[in-house]
Amino acid sequence: MSVALCLRGIHWLETYQDKKNNHFYKIDFRKNIKNIRQMIIKPFKNKDIKVDIYISTNHSELEDEFKNTFKPVYFNAYDIKTDGKIYLPVKRRTLELLREVKKSQIRYEYIIVSRPDLILKTQITNIPFNPHCINFTCKAKFDKNSWCDFLQICNSDTLQELINAYKKVYKKIGSTHHLHMVCNAFSILGDDRKNIFNNELVSLIKYPASRTSI
How much is the pTM? Predict the structure, then answer.
């Protein structure tokens, strides 16, 4: 049995502006290494399940350290876009990783899409996973046809459906019956984002532990 862990997003940035609340943060993946190892990698390895890590992130002075820390089977890095705001297009980076997972032709029991700054509150193997669905954390309150990009879990059987959903830029995915909500799974520490999430998930969302307010 094998598991694919896809980490996409910024791992290190001296100054990041959150476009939702105009706060400034320092992003540092090193503050989250322990959580990723203890909550995602170790629970599988304790069951003799191999974890293949796929990473798509930004270029930085800590790029090699990030890569050497997780020893991914696939790694790609990009310059961060700075057209008025600093960001790394999450949808494109996610699609890139999902396509690489599919290209591998390995049958994965779990395909976990996460971020370098996501803090899980429980071990990934304790999350109620429906193997017949795309499992996600919550639908975004600001768009009824969208889900939040924090965490998704699928397997090789439902991988193509998740790829198709990203290709549609989240359009009309709320109508599919193959979505299974996974609640109470994670915490993101720092800045409060209550206003954009469904009420039942308000207590889960704060902002990433790997972000330090400036």
Answer: 0.79
